[in-house]
Amino acid sequence: MRKCFLAAGLALVFIFAGCTKEPAENPYATPEDTVEVFAEAMKKGDLEAALDCYADTALSKTAVGVEGLSEHEIRNLFLKSLEASREPYGKEEITNLESKLLTAEVTYELGGVKHTHTLVNQGGEWKIATDLTR
Known about the structure:
Layout: H1 2-19, H2 31-44, H3 47-51, H4 61-64, H5 71-84, H6 87-91, E1 94-100, E2 105-110, E3 113-122, E4 125-129
Antiparallel strand pairs: 1-2, 2-3, 3-4
C-alpha cells in the first residue's frame, strides 16, 4: 500500500513539474527585443539570424519593389544588403534604445548615427518591417 502512495506521489510531482515548466522565451516578444536580436546577429555576422528578425512581408516582391525576381533572388539581395550595412554593428554597441509601442517604432544610436526600425506584430512576435519602395 505504501508503495502505491509513493508511486502516486511521484507521478503527481512529475505531472505538476511539467505543468509549471516555463515556455521557451520568445526572442521577439517586444520590439526592443527584436532590435537587440537583430543588432547581435549583425555584430556576429549571422545574416540569416538578422534576416529572421524581418517580417515575412519584408521579402515580398511588392515590399522590395521588383518584378521578375524569384523569392530566392530577393532573399540573396536582402542578405547582400545586410552584409553591406553590417560594419557599424561589429564596432559599436547600440545605445538610447527606445520604442513607441503604439506605432511599433524603435530608435537607437549606433556609433553616433541614429537608426529607426518600424516593427509589426506577426503571430505574437515583433518583426522588423520594411518598404524599400519609399
